[in-house]
Specification:
globular, 11 helices, seven-stranded mixed β-sheet, binds pyridoxal-5'-phosphate, alpha/beta
Length: 368
């Protein structure tokens, strides 16, 4: 029996091997490995791609979020509104700058921050809203930006899972104050190691992140700030430049897989994901909900299908927050989703035969 991997990251290399080998060799031969021409070119190309004035490459997605918060002057005593259902990195960035993550529940239709619930969470200490474009579905930016504007709050988006996504025909990445990106290998645009970036139209935020990612230094051995070391290296930048040219095509292939699942799985006794009509969804993950998750997942495993759970424990229930008052938050939607979500294989290199195998196994499993 053929095993269907959850995601075949190696396939991205195999498809582009000559181009990637050439890019890596070019960097190795140049003798220049950090903060050079490849990063500068990638930053310009990615800013143009997402429609933002500035892009600054950093070490990873978590640091992209942290540096964004620091650049907006957010720290101890401040509150930042985060979704109750997300990868914990969103919350950790807020905690690590000394601010308090304040969770707001998500809408079960989009898995994203429910704008209707935002205003009740705003206090005099709130400084920012941090929506996540989870699973590749854009957050409801118009409503979030309107509420932020009304209350004088900043908007930082976590776009780690949404490279190429569009909100009402406009790419996310130039909306709000700043957008944080991760290029972790498994993301829609992934490096072959750690990498991240911020995009923004605000020259002050771009400048601060640019200086802070490199020891708070603009000129070598002159340190203006107590900065960090968070750099996107030349090899990863060169690889990302190659992959960026294929991102739209790969996202289109993901959409085709999602469309096939949507049609074929209507009778599968699962709650299928939806895309809002204004959403340019990039299907980082295809997440279904089922009350019988343990049985359905085991059945798929027995049929050679790998699945994952994003995420089995909500951030407020993690040991990491056990010593804080976040632990006792009442977040029934996040807790219920953590028990029901199941991610099916999806990716630009999932073959039609593999998609058929997934569909057949799921339909077979719902009759058991
Ligand atoms: C991957 C991810 C991050 C963290 O990115 P890293 O590059 O791994 O640090 C943050 N937020 C979300 C929603 C993610 O999926």
């Amino acid at each position: 029996m053929h095993t269907v991997k959850f995601l075949d990251i190696g396939a991205t290399y195999r498809e582009l091997k000559p181009e990637i080998d050439e890019a890596v060799a070019r960097v190795l031969e140049s003798g220049w490995y950090l903060l050079g021409a490849e990063l500068e070119a990638f930053e310009a190309e990615y800013a143009a791609y997402v429609g933002a004035k500035y892009c600054v490459g950093v070490g990873n997605g978590l640091e992209a979020l942290q540096l964004s918060l620091l650049a907006m002057g957010i720290g101890p005593g401040n509150e930042v509104i985060v979704p109750s259902h997300t990868y914990i990195a969103t919350w950790l960035a807020v905690s690590q700058v000394g601010a308090k993550p304040v969770p707001v529940e998500v809408s079960e239709d989009t898995f994203n921050l429910d704008p209707e619930l935002l205003e009740t969470a705003i206090t005099p200490s709130t400084r920012a809203i941090l929506p996540v474009h989870l699973y590749g579905h854009p957050a409801e930016m118009d409503q979030i930006l309107t509420i932020a504007h009304k209350h004088g709050l900043r908007v930082l988006s976590d776009a780690a899972q949404a490279q190429g996504a569009r909100y009402k025909n406009k790419r996310i990445g130039g909306m709000g104050d700043v957008t944080a990106w991760s290029f972790y290998p498994g993301k829609n645009l992934g490096a072959f190691g750690d990498a991240g970036a911020i995009t923004t139209d605000d020259p002050q935020i771009a400048d601060r992140v640019r200086v802070w990612r490199n020891y708070g230094s603009r000129v070598k051995y002159l340190n203006e700030y107590q900065g960090y070391n968070s750099r996107l290296d030349e090899i990863q930048a060169a690889i990302l430049r190659v992959k960026l040219k294929h991102l739209d095509d790969w996202n289109a292939r993901r959409s085709r897989v999602a469309e096939r699942y949507q049609h074929a799985l209507t009778a599968a006794n699962l709650t299928l994901p939806t895309a809002s009509d204004w959403a340019g969804h990039v299907w980082h993950l295809y997440v279904v909900c089922t009350a019988e998750r343990t049985r359905r997942q085991a059945h798929l495993k027995s049929m050679g299908i790998d699945t994952l759970i994003h995420y089995p424990i909500p951030p407020h229930r993690q040991q990491a927050y056990a010593q804080t008052d976040l632990k006792s938050q009442n977040l029934p939607i996040a807790e219920s989703l953590a028990e029901r979500v199941l991610s099916l294989p999806i990716g630009p290199h999932l073959t039609e035969a593999e998609q058929d195998q997934v569909i057949k196994a799921i339909l077979d499993g719902c009759q058991k």
